[in-house]
Structures are given as C-alpha cells and as structure tokens.
C-alpha cells in the first residue's frame, strides 16, 4: 500500500486497496522513477485514476514531495558536512522528475554531495547494480572503497552484492558509529 500518500488517501475517503489499485493503474511500470514519465504526466494520470480536481491533484503532488523529502536528519547532515575533505559524498536516490529541484530548494544537497544520482535521470532503480556502478564511476572509486548507507535492506543488499560496504540506516547514532569504524579501518 502507498502509505506515503496516506494524507491524500484519507482526504479522498478511499480504502488502502482502492487507493493502491488506482495508483497502480496510473503508473503500472513505475515510469515516474525511471524517467519514462514526467511529473506532469504522472500527476495527470493520478488525477484521472483518483478522480481529482486540479486543486486536489496539486495537494496530492505536495503530499508526495513532503513524503519524499521527509524531515532532514540534521545530525547526519552535520556529520557529512564535517567529514574530512579526502572523503567524497554522493546520493543515489530512487526518485521522480522534479526531485533534484525540490531537494535542492529544501536542503541544498549539492553543497555536500557530488555526484547526486537520481533514478529518473539515469533510468535505473536501486538495487540495480548498474546504478551503483554509475556512482562508483562518477566518484572514481572502486566499490570496495565506498560506503553505502540506506534505510532499505534490499538496496543495502544490492550495494553489498556489488562490492560496496553497505550499512542499513536504522538510527543516526548507529550509522555514524558504523561509518566511523569503516573509515578508521580503511586508514
């Protein structure tokens, strides 16, 4: 079920199954995340599938961006900002059209991360090993020289299978300790 859009689902008075079926019909092959469907087209398809007015469709997209961007983990961002310059930081994100602009406006990620790899821009979703290969290529690093942090076990498993040091993000303090240990071991 699309719990990330629960505010929209509740406003529409739909059950989880009804809502999921409508969204599945609007974008059955997840084209929004692989760049085959623009944000405007996705919005229009969802609006049609859900019977939304233009104003409701705008609220629906706003709910999606609020979920997608979430709340910034200030402690983790401070950690990244204070890493020694010899470490490079990147983002690999399963995303949709508009993500780069929305995240940059909200959080200024390009100040701290380079490269930022969005699935909709490269046509690949985590855990496809090719998206990890793109990151390593852009970072000019071998997989074993990288640390990959994600809150999805399947994405962490994919990164590990590719040869990266994968860490499942369950708490900020634990993630920072684990990264520090890996960095200390590599020195």
Description of the structure:
By secondary structure, the chain is mainly α. Helix content is 57%, strand content 7%. The chain is built from eleven helices and four strands; from the N terminus they run H-H-H-H-H-H-E-H-E-H-H-E-H-E-H. The chain has helices at residues 6-12, 16-26, 31-34, 39-50, 54-69, 74-81, 99-107, 119-122, 129-139, 153-162, 172-186, and strands spanning 91-93, 116-118, 147-150, 165-168. Helix 2 crosses helix 4 and helix 4 (39-50) packs across helix 5 (54-69). The radius of gyration is 18 Å and the shape is elongated. The relative contact order is 0.10. The model has no long low-confidence stretch (mean pLDDT 94).
Q: Give, in order, the helices and strands.
A: HHHHHHEHEHHEHEH
**Approximate strand percentage:** 5-15%
Give, in spatial order, the strands making up the sheet with the most strands: 1-2
Annotation, overall tally of beta strands: 4
Summing up helix and strand content along with how strands pair, one would put the structural category as mainly alpha
The outline comes out as elongated
Q: Runs with pLDDT <50, length 5+?
A: none
| Termini Cα gap | 44 Å
Report Rg. Answer: 18 Å
Short description:
This protein is mainly alpha-helical and 187 residues long. It has 11 helices and 4 strands.
Give structural attributes.
187 residues; mainly alpha; two-stranded parallel sheet; 7% strand
Show the helix and strand layout.
Layout: H1 6-12, H2 16-26, H3 31-34, H4 39-50, H5 54-69, H6 74-81, E1 91-93, H7 99-107, E2 116-118, H8 119-122, H9 129-139, E3 147-150, H10 153-162, E4 165-168, H11 172-186
Parallel strand pairs: 1-2, 3-4
